[in-house]
Amino acid sequence: MTETEEVARPVPRWAAGLVSRLAQDRPAVVTRGGLAEYLEEQGADRDLDRTINDLQKLGWLETLHLHGVWAFVPPGETVTVDAYLDLKGWRARDPSAVFALAGEAAAWHLGYVARRFDGPPAVWLPRETKLPHGLRAHVSTVRIAWPAKVHEDVRPSAKLLHKKRLDLTLWASGLPALGPEALLVELSLRPSSFRTWADLVPNLEVLATDCDLARVERLLRGQSASGWQRAAYLLARGGRRDDGLELLGQKPGAKPMPKVALGSGPEATWSREFRVNDSLVAPLQDRLGKA
Predict the structure, then answer these.
(1) What's the pLDDT at 79?
(2) Residue 270 CB burial class (10 angstroms; 0-12, 13-18, ≥19)
(3) Cys bridge to 233: 152, 212, 254, 276, which one at CB 3.0-4.6 A?
(4) For residue 2, what is the DSSP state?
């Protein structure tokens, strides 16, 4: 998304065809390789670095926090305000990078929170993926080790996206993002990674309803006992108590369940079934019920 601009930017003769093609395609970001292809298509015998530098000075390219990739600013528009430009640049520069929008970003795109979080977007990364140095101050990372064989379960199913009338490829600004099951597991394994619980709790039932129990179980395999307990408990608080107990019954290990905390605060609700001391969800639900 961009803001409109009144003053037209200059287009020198050498740049006319190049800017016209970029304006036609309107790529959010362009890489060095992509710009080289545009130059070759135009038959322009011009140094690539000089071209990039000149387009930046003219205002057609905007620097990102990554080397080798830039945001294109279309005609009639100015400073870009797309919160995901750096992530789009990373994906364009390294198509093999494995990551997904997580936390508040995933919840917003799936309709579980009403307001878009204006802080650094949360991004899930597998343990082996290195975040580019330039992005470290501009995203919030969520590290959860899921085996590659369940990465398909990390994203929402096509059936769910169709049900929600979301575009299969563009629903999260064209980026990969966690589906409801992976989001539930994130909330269970990394509760503090989610920064807008007060916005989510009123829609917890919707999140729970959207979750496929088999997918949740696959994403929990190999995770901590506390994660299993919180996931089962959150399903129960979302109106799926029987499914929560069924999920808890699949938790590996025969040892007695530990006492698990969910949040911290002066108010707490103790769940004997799930052995969760909840200072986060139940108190909010109680207050909402009294409102």
Answers:
(1) 65
(2) exposed
(3) 276
(4) E
Architecture label for domain 2-89: Alpha-Beta Complex (3.90)
Average pLDDT score over residue span 66-83: 86
* Residues β-bridged to residue 277: 261, 270
Which stretches of 111-224 are DSSP H helices? 151-154, 158-163, 180-189, 197-200, 204-210, 213-220
CA-nearest of 191, 273, 270 to 236 is: 273
Q: What is the pTM of this model?
A: 0.91
| Measured distance CA(47)–CA(11) in Å, rounded | 17
CATH 3.90.56.20 domain residues, the chain: 2-89
pLDDT mean across residues, the chain: 92
**Residue type at 7 in one-letter notation:** V
The pLDDT > 70 percentage for the chain reads 96
Q: Is the pLDDT of residue 154 over 80?
A: yes
Name the H helices within the chain: 16-25, 32-42, 48-58, 85-93, 103-110, 151-154, 158-163, 180-189, 197-200, 204-210, 213-220, 225-237, 241-249, 281-290
Confidence of residue 141 (pLDDT cuts 50, 70, 90): very high
From the list 107, 117, 212, the residue with the least C-alpha distance to 158 is 212
Q: Quote the CA–CA distance of 188 and 139 in Å, as a whole number.
A: 21
Q: Is 144 helix (H, G, I), strand (E, B) or coil?
A: coil
Phi, psi of 260 (to 5 degrees): -120, 140
DSSP string, 234-269: HHHHTT-HHHHHHHHHT-S--SPPPPEEES-SS--E
